[in-house]
Specification:
The chain is of the alpha/beta class. It is 52% helix and 14% strand. It has two domains: 2-135, Response regulator (Rossmann fold), CATH 3.40.50.2300; 142-216, Winged helix-like DNA-binding domain superfamily/Winged helix DNA-binding domain (Arc Repressor Mutant, subunit A, Orthogonal Bundle). The longest helix has 15 residues, at 182-196. The N and C termini lie far apart (40 Å). The relative contact order is 0.10.
Length: 217
């Protein structure tokens, strides 16, 4: 059973998500919060598997709340939900360690799928947000190279895997592309996460673009 905490400053939104999740097999809402500060306390106490986190909230916004939540409960997965798809929110949320970012008008079925995906340890972005994120890096005139410092310890094969992750390929697709086993691919991804200090695949994408690796992909 995947345990979820819903964080939103609107009671009606929290109630709507609660009904949707509690009527879905395999999901249950174990708590809720009306602002970021309350979210930090609730998540720290209940230690759920997934947090649905709004961005714009009183007292403490969702991005700062996400940073604090992950500092206290590193294993929790945070799915950002917002009515806004502005670039600065996307980038800040992913930098804070969120495992996903969806708009609130996302169809219910897609939201449920997203929760299951990030609960399983993967990451997810709404398609339109993925396009915005990639476009932001593509528009940068001079990518910052050599970031982060752990990049120097990445092997040639791990670099190949990193480039394919940045292109949006799944582990299965990477295995087929590089003609290696799925287990080997998962090992490479796990080592990349550790070496580069990334929480999830989305942050690996950010590393690849910030380091300018995609220019040579």
């Amino acid at each position: 059973m995947t345990r979820v905490v819903v964080v939103d400053d609107q009671a009606l939104v929290r109630a709507s998500f609660g009904v949707l999740l509690d009527t879905t097999p395999g999901l249950t809402v174990v708590g809720e919060a009306g602002d970021g500060a309350e979210a930090v306390d609730v998540v720290t106490r209940l230690r759920p598997d997934v947090v649905l986190m709004d961005i714009r909230m009183p007292r403490l916004n969702g991005i700062d709340a996400t940073r604090q939540v992950l500092a206290r409960v590193p294993d929790v997965k945070v799915l950002m939900l917002t009515t806004y798809d502005l670039d600065e929110y996307v980038y800040a949320a992913l930098r804070a360690g969120a495992s996903g970012f969806l708009l609130k008008d996302t169809p219910p079925a897609d939201l449920l799928t997203a929760i299951q995906v990030i609960a399983g340890g993967d990451a997810i972005l709404a398609p339109q947000i993925t396009r915005r994120l990639i476009r932001e890096f593509a528009d940068r005139p001079e990518p910052r190279r050599g970031l982060p410092h752990g990049l120097a310890g990445v092997t040639e094969r791990e670099r190949d895997v990193l480039l394919l992750v940045a292109q949006g390929l799944s582990n299965t697709e990477i295995s087929e592309r590089l003609h290696i086993s799925l287990a080997t691919t998962k090992t490479h991804v796990a080592r990349l996460l550790a070496k580069l200090g990334a929480r999830n695949r989305i942050q690996l994408v950010i590393v690849a673009y910030e380091a300018g690796l995609m220019e040579t992909a």
